[in-house]
Amino acid sequence: MRKTKLPFSDFDARWKRAIEAMHEAFMHYFFPGLSSQINFSKNVRFLDKEYQKLFADWEKKGWTAGDKLLEYQLKGGGKHLVLVHAEAHGGDQAIFKEQQFIRFYRIRDKHPDKMLTQLVIYTGKTMPPEPGTYHYSFEGTINMHQFNTCTVKEQDRQALERRGKENPFALVMLAALEHIETLDDGERRRKTKIRLIRLCLESPFRKMIGDLLTFVQFTIALPEKEEDLYREEVETILKQPKMGMRDVQPEATKTLEIMLWGKTLEQRDEEMKERLTKQIESKLSKQIESKLTKQIELKKQTEFILKMYNSGMEPAKIASILKVKKATVLKAIEGVNQQPE
Fold it and tell me: What are the two backbone dihedrals, phi and then psi, of residue 63, each rounded to the nearest 5 degrees?
């Protein structure tokens, strides 16, 4: 099967944005035990700037693009750190797991008073052997670093759909899974994206629907032909009276509409209406102008015919000179003769 060419999608940015926007749902999804200890009424801190300083020597190599470092306050006091790395390319590089070990000890060295856990989300089709373990051994010195992992391609589609009714981050995982599963089939990818959009719009987590739609919209990129069909189908869905999504989820649908068309459907339809009105007005104006022009030309033509005829020229000769039918010449002459004196 010929591989479908897809537009570029910035997976690192999409994952970081999803984790930041839905951090509480993210924690409940991956760390349910730790989540029960966290005081979510206290604002989470995203230590992006501090993290960049710790790994300034990595920035040029792009090794920190998919990382997110979060700091939570606990119910009993104290703080915990959570380091998340979304590995969009599969993490099959030989150095990848060593990077996870270095990430851990640099952050731990900077924050010795805070407990730190680590998660790597493998979002590609490949991953390294023993994906959650780094081994080091040299002359009797042995080090083993283990960290949490989640492999998107191993997730169960139906289980994610069911769990999505309880935790919105399951829909993020479902979208990531469908991204992998439909890479080589544009039509299936479009249909899958439509289904995901429906699931997002029907989600009971209203405050997060906009973030879910954003993740789906920009993660599952479509070929140009399928993108046009997708937009038509989405518009049909949003305008269906039975579904009523624009009434039930007005803010979410507005977000989706702006992502797709750069404006809401009402704004777009109003602009189309104004444009159509201007086109009709312009067409009518041109028709009137054309009609007047023809009338003027006909009047001038009649004047020429009469001048030639009054000078003694035969109708056939007049028709030949003006390149018109003889009947046209006779009609002009008869019209004048029939006018009341």
Answer: -85, -5
